[in-house]
Amino acid sequence: MKHIKNTWQLFMIDWQRIFKNPIAIFLMVALMFIPSLYAWFNIKALWDPYANTSQLPIAVYSADKTQKFQDKSINIGEDVLKNLKKNKQLGWQFVDSKATLDKGVKSGKYYAGIYLPSDFSKNLLSFTTGDIKKPEIVYSINEKINAIAPKITSKGASSLQSQISEEFINTASRTLFNTFNTIGYDLDKNMVSIQKVKSMILSTNDNLATIDQYTQQVVALHGKLPELKGKLDKANQFANYLPQVDDLGDKIVKLDNNMPTIKNQLSVIMTLQGKIPEIQNAGKQLAMIDQDFAGVQQTMTNGIQEAKQGLTIIHQVQTALPDIKKLGNDATKLADVSLSGATQLKDALPTITNSVQVTLQSLKTVADSTSSIVTTVEQAIADDKLTPDEKAQINQLIQAAQANITTQQTAIKNLVDLMKQVETNAGNHDLDPAISRLEALSTVLGQVSEKIGQVNGFIQNDDIAAVEAVLDQINILSQNISALVGQIDVSSISTSVKNQLEQFIKTVTEAKGLLTQAQSIDFDSLLNATSQTVTNAIAILEKYQKEMPAIQQEVHDANTMLNGNMTAIVDGINKGASLYQNELPVVSQKLDQAADFVKNDYPSIRKDLTDTLGTVNQKMPELESALNQANDLIANDWPSIKAGVQKAADAIRKGEKEVDLGNIVKLLKLDATKESDFLTKPVDIQENAIYPIANNGSASTPFYTALCLWVGAVLFSSLAVTEVYIKDKDRGRYSKREQFSARMLTFIVMGIGQALIVTLGNYFGLGVSVHNPVYSVLFAELIAIIFMIMVYVLVGLFGNIGKGIAIIILVLSISGGGGNYPIQVSGKFFQFINPFLPFTHAVNLLRESAGGIYWPNAWSAILILVSVGVVFLVGGIWLFPHIEPTSKKISEAAHKSHIFH
């Protein structure tokens, strides 16, 4: 009860604030009316869209030419134009040419054009001659002007077509029945002759099977005529080749006589078959040479290049040999000097070690003196005051320390340079760890000098507070100095230097011996011989190099020819051997038989063939002409003759059983006017309207009313805030859910007002036809409450994102709600979402009150809408405290863009 009470209090506070603010009152009233304007304007615009179709311009032009029929002049095109001038359903514009009609339709002056061609009457009357041609009405339409106009104008063209068809049927049937009247009187006078014709038809029908057999034989023979002519042509062509056949027969006889010699020559193929493995092996070796030839050529090229480079080096050495000899003498002297220096440096190593030890000891002293300076400064600033004498003393102390640090850095640099030089000469990096530590020491000393300089500046400026922070840093740096000095092992450095000096002395001693040995070699003779040998080798290699492309091409061609056709070669040899062993004896036997035929039988056969072809060629045109005439008669006339005889016989027999010919004559004498009217309109249609609605505007009202209620909810949520303003003293009094529920009630009241205004405006303002006005208002109120709850919950939970979702639902509802058009004519996607859109059921519910309530449908829509509202109501109240912090963060992030509020 407390929650309900607090919610009601917040709800009343909302309306108290609204009524105290004139601007708020104005906005509330405006937001109640504005959505209704959306519905009212659309309903009024669609009130009766087909009432003004007479203003819709449609061009009409008839080029129809007058036709003569039964001594009467007929121009149906003119009759059509006369009737259209009386027709006010569409805005008929009668133009004077087809060009004017086409230009007007293309330019948009006319929505459509109807053109009756010059042969319209002629084709319409063609049924009287038996050669029927359907007349055409050329209907042109400009579909880009408007979406609905093409449907209206198409309906006009269809109505015109129906009108012409109805008039044609009426006229044709009247003419037909007038003819039947005449026939009826003629039949009555010629009854005896009719009976004779009847007997002849029945007799012919009884013998149709026999006649069919004859016709089938004739057709079969005619069907084989092309085949016979083709065979005759081939026979004639063969006769033309008889001289060549004669020549071929002579060759067969000669070949048969030479067969023993051919057999002897073909026996070589058996020897080749035994050599196939050797041929295949030769192919593999040739392929290997071809594959590796590029490598051989590259190797030769590389060899020539290397030989030329070596020859260049030899020439350079020969040129430089005098200097080299001199350099050798100087090198011997250098070796003596270097050996002496290294030996002396090794003897002085203890002294160097002591120097390093002294340098490191002095670095420890710097660390101690730095700590002493820090202590002195701390004591001086203990009382936060410094006398001029203290400042001068500290200044002198720090300057001396900085000078000492500079001296130590110089000593470290000299020591590092010495170690690097020793490493360079030895060709290793054994002293790198000690060098790194000494360089780090130099860096730390520089930092100490900088920091104590800062301290001196602060002291001289009486900035005591800044001094204390720097002193801690100096203490840390002095501790680093002591740690780094402790990490340097002097004995290890001394040992490394000693080992490198001993290695240097050994290397110099060995080099000196090698120099002495090299001076005894006769390099002049050696280099001359070497140069001559390399020159000769280069000349030989270059000679072969020039011949290499031709050799490579020959090898490649041989490889391609042999290995590319190896399978064919082997198969050919094997097939040749098989032919020699198996087929050749058979061929030899057949050849003997063929030669015997040519000698003994062929001459008489040739004479018979020539004589027979002459006779056939002479008689073929007469046979073809007769068969064509017979086949044409059977193909074109016999089916209709046969069908006519059968139908006539069937009709006669059926008529004799069922109808008296006298009665038929009486029937043909009936009134032609009444019979033609029956054929023109054989059926009358009785329309029965269920749930009638007065006009199109009233039929569209449910869709636009539901749409305006959703638009109203979205519009109000875009301007009104969902967050309740609470004073600081009352912040702990109301819970999040209470605030959410109270503001929802305010939104619902707004929706109720919007629904009341739009429904009453529909009924009393526009005069919309509503079958159940009270239920129309109640249903609209229910829909407004549901829609407002849905939109409020979306906006309250998700802010601007919720507004976007509401707009998406609006867009989908317009297309998928089945408002203006049956959902069955929409796409598959919209048919799928239709049952899941609340808008669908809202429109269906409002339609019930508009045309007459069918309560099973109404209760179904009510239950679905209420269920959706309850889900959103309960879900929103339960989720709001959990989602509200996240929603606020998203809103704040959007506010930072200075675009979204």
TrEMBL record:
Q: Which residues cross the membrane?
A: 21-41, 703-726, 747-768, 774-798, 805-823, 858-880
Its placement in the membrane is given as:
Multi-pass membrane protein
Show the GO cellular component annotation of the record.
membrane
Q: Where in the cell is it found?
A: Membrane
Xref: InterPro entries: ABC2_TM (IPR013525), Phage_infect_YhgE_C (IPR017501), Phage_infect_YhgE_N (IPR017500), T7SS_ABC-Transporter (IPR051328)
Tell me yes or no: is Membrane among this UniProt entry's keywords.
yes
- What domain of life does the native source organism fall in? Bacteria
Going by the UniProt record, its keywords in alphabetical order are: Membrane, Transmembrane, Transmembrane helix
Could you tell me which residue ranges the ABC-2 type transporter transmembrane domain spans?
Answer: 26-181, 712-848
Q: What GO molecular function terms would the record report? A: ABC-type transporter activity
Q: PANTHER family annotated for this entry?
A: TRANSPORT PERMEASE PROTEIN, TRANSPORT PERMEASE YVFS-RELATED
Protein name as annotated: Phage infection protein
Origin organism is: Pseudolactococcus plantarum
